[in-house]
User: What shape does this take?
Amino acid sequence: MIVEQIWTGNAYRNFNYLIICPQSGEALAVDPLDHEKCLAKAAEMGWTITQVLNTHEHPDHTGGNQAVIAATGARLLAHINARDSIAGVDRGLQAGDTVQVGTTVELEALDTPGHTMSHVCLLSHTDQPALFSGDTLFNAGAGNCHHGGHPEQLYATFAEQLANLPEHTCVYPGHDYMGNNLEFTLDREPGNEKAARLLNAVADQDPNAPLVSTLALEKEINTFFRLQNPAVIAGLREVFPELAENPDPKTVFLKLRELRNTW
Assistant: This one.
């Protein structure tokens, strides 16, 4: 499996992806908002885009669909419940469905509600698994729930699905928010030395060649996985004095998401 991460350079800091079968040269375009860059990279490398997948229905993820499809004839894939919000869906995906790219690449669809209620992530079935997480999981952060989502569903997605993936799973998010998210981690957990070192390391990184994190790293530097950390809980109780001394992980997650909304 070849993964081409495409930095859009737009105000929303989107990442687009091409997932390629090295044997056949067939490619899946994930959220190809910058259709010009996606088409140009495919042409440059001799890849053929045969499918487009939207992780969810927001315009900064679907806006390039028609241009890519018009240029390639690709089929459009999205969550099965997104047919009313994404025009022209050819295949609706449910949890456990397989997305085949060429002859060698197999991706599993995960039903991952929270950011929106019609959100899918893709998990590769490879020796080095990769998660294409859209706006559910960011580097050092979690998606917001402002436009059609629910924080409690997002917590369930983190706790019941993402946290149980293999530790060496690579994380490919829909946006580059790593620096700002690490600052939030350090605001909530000032003693997190790993996050502090990483913030310094990525401060001047080239977004065209960014650090690719793993789930193991996320559990060290992403506050939304650190729900039982004493420092995180103590900091929350300063802001929310009504919080129990030993709150359950769901309550911690929801309070963190509430703080992040206005941070």
In short: The chain is about 30% helix and 25% strand. The radius of gyration is 18 Å. Residues 7 and 15 are 5 Å apart (CA to CA).
